[in-house]
């Protein structure tokens, strides 16, 4: 008999041998008989534990601090910062209609076995299979999730090549990723329970996967993943759109990762990235004429870019029929709203000061006052360091458990402000595109970080003070 054991992100097989003593020999001595029965029970228990591991990953038990499956119960939970992935086969219902039930199960199991490897290779933990869909978790870093998604697409190419040899059509999948604090735990009751992950982070990851169907692209990530990646420049990433998400006070930005595209198409997208992003910026700022001209120029070179085609159609509908399909949140000023407050007066006051100065930056860009642009950027750099110092002192004072992740977010933002400063003071940047970049990289980060990450910190502080 064999069982599967997870070791260093790889599955290995170990063989458990049954006792080799002849039964007749054991029966002649009561102590030997008892020892043999004990060994058989021990091996049966090990095999049973291994079988449980197929349904509840050992990683989940480790997260919950449980030694084995018998130690968990409904209500056990732990909060973690992780990247959540959802993937799904396109048109699975249509594909399965042309198969027998037996063929469908063979197909699903074959596909899932292929996708399991790249997920585990990049330190991922499969939470569950939902028919043809996969939900996976990446507790170490957002980079792991993105690397796994790219690797899944590469694996899919080989898988489809083998399907073609067998006379089957290729399949296509979509992968969505989001990063944030999640609650991992056990739900159910004494008769039936299971491990799961819940929270806003999970909902947004599922939404990202759903959007891959609309934009007809394999991999989409949220702005939170983009913020959490150690170095976004090592990937091929571009802005796609902004979408309203239930529970968020501001629409979130969605990005495409196209590293797994065919090499020729990926190279074309990279070469045309500036034109594409400017066209998208003009559309979101309702400059449809300029946007349409740029999309037509772009598609003349890259006609196979589905997202660009989608935007060109939007431009035409807006110009011909006045149908606007964008989000109203992109503008040159963002007013402070009550829902931006996190409940900690000192942090809220500093957030308002940051927002006001980002507004000042947007106005200076709109007025093309480059001297003021540089002055405001300098102030933002200094004030950001001061504000992050305030939060760091509070995290140390209250022994905040997610201080490391929180400070990593801060470090990436400081780096982003520095990069944006170089970009904004460049003479070749036009006003509208610069305003768009301020929206994506400053307004978005401040509101997203404040209402999610900082709000969690404020709640933690309030609970600690209440308990004291």
Description:
It is a single chain. This protein is an alpha+beta fold and 468 residues long. The protein has helices at 23-27, 30-55, 58-64, 92-96, 101-121, 142-165, 200-215, 223-228, 263-271, 273-284, 288-301, 306-321, 345-366, 370-397, 403-424, 431-467; strands at residues 2-7, 10-15, 77-89, 125-130, 133-138, 173-188, 193-198, 219-222, 237-243, 252-257. The strands form two sheets. Strands 3, 4, 5, 6, 7, 8, 9 and 10 form an eight-stranded mixed β-sheet that branches. A two-stranded antiparallel sheet has the order 1-2. α5 (101-121) runs antiparallel to α6 and α15 packs antiparallel against α16 (431-467). The chain is flat.
How many helices in DSSP terms? 16
Number of strands: 10
How far apart are the first and last residues' alpha carbons, in Å? 55 Å
Average pLDDT reading: 85
Provide the helix percentage.
Answer: 55-70%
Keyphrases for this structure?
single chain, 468 residues, alpha+beta, 16 helices, 58% helix, flat, disordered N terminus
Give a short synopsis of this structure.
By secondary structure, the chain is an alpha+beta fold.
Give the helices and strands, then pairings.
Elements: E1 2-7, E2 10-15, H1 23-27, H2 30-55, H3 58-64, E3 77-89, H4 92-96, H5 101-121, E4 125-130, E5 133-138, H6 142-165, E6 173-188, E7 193-198, H7 200-215, E8 219-222, H8 223-228, E9 237-243, E10 252-257, H9 263-271, H10 273-284, H11 288-301, H12 306-321, H13 345-366, H14 370-397, H15 403-424, H16 431-467
Parallel strand pairs: 6-8
Antiparallel strand pairs: 1-2, 3-5, 3-6, 4-5, 6-7, 8-10, 9-10
Helix pairs in contact: 5-6, 10-11, 10-16, 11-12, 13-14, 13-16, 14-15, 15-16
């Amino acid at each position: 008999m064999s069982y599967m054991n997870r070791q260093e992100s790889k599955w290995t097989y170990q063989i458990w041998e049954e006792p080799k003593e002849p039964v007749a020999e054991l029966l002649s001595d009561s102590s030997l008989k008892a020892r043999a029965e004990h060994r058989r029970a021990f091996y049966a228990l090990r095999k049973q534990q291994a079988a449980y591991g197929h349904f509840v990953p050992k990683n989940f038990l480790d997260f919950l601090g449980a030694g084995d499956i018998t130690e968990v119960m409904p209500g056990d939970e732990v909060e973690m910062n992780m990247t959540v992935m959802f993937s799904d086969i396109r048109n699975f219902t249509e594909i399965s209609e042309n198969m027998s039930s037996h063929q469908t199960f063979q197909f699903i199991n074959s596909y899932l076995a292929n996708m399991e490897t790249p997920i585990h290779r990049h330190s991922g933990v499969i939470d569950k299979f939902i028919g043809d869909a996969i939900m996976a978790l990446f507790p170490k870093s957002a980079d792991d999730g993105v690397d796994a998604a790219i690797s899944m697409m590469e694996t899919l190419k080989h898988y489809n090549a083998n399907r073609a040899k067998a006379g089957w059509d290729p399949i296509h999948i979509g992968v969505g990723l989001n990063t944030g604090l999640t609650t991992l735990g056990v739900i159910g009751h004494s008769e039936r329970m299971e491990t799961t992950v819940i929270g806003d982070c999970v909902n947004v990851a599922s939404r990202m996967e759903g959007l891959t169907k609309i934009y007809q692209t394999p991999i989409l990530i949220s702005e939170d993943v983009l913020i959490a990646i150690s170095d976004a420049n090592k990937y091929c990433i571009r802005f796609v759109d902004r979408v309203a998400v239930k529970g968020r006070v501001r629409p979130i930005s969605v990005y495409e990762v196209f590293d797994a595209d065919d090499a020729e198409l990926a190279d074309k997208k990279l070469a045309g990235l500036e034109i594409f992003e400017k066209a998208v910026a003009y559309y979101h700022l309702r400059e449809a004429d300029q946007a349409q001209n740029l999309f037509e120029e772009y598609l003349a070179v890259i006609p196979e870019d589905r997202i660009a085609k989608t935007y060109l159609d939007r431009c035409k509908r807006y110009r011909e029929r006045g149908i606007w399909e964008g989000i109203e949140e992109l503008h040159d000023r963002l007013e402070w709203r009550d829902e931006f407050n996190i409940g900690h007066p000192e942090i809220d006051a500093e957030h308002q000061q940051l927002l006001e100065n980002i507004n000042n930056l947007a106005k200076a860009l709109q007025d093309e006052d480059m001297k003021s642009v540089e002055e405001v950027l300098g102030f933002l750099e200094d004030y950001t360091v001061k504000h992050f110092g305030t939060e760091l002192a509070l995290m140390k004072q209250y022994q905040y458990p997610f201080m490391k992740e929180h400070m990593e977010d801060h470090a990436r933002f400081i780096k982003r402000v520095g990069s944006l400063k170089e970009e904004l003071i460049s003479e070749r940047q036009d006003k509208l595109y610069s305003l768009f970049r301020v929206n994506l990289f400053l307004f978005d980060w401040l509101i997203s970080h404040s209402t999610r990450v900082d709000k969690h910190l404020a709640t933690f502080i309030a609970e600690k003070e209440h308990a004291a």
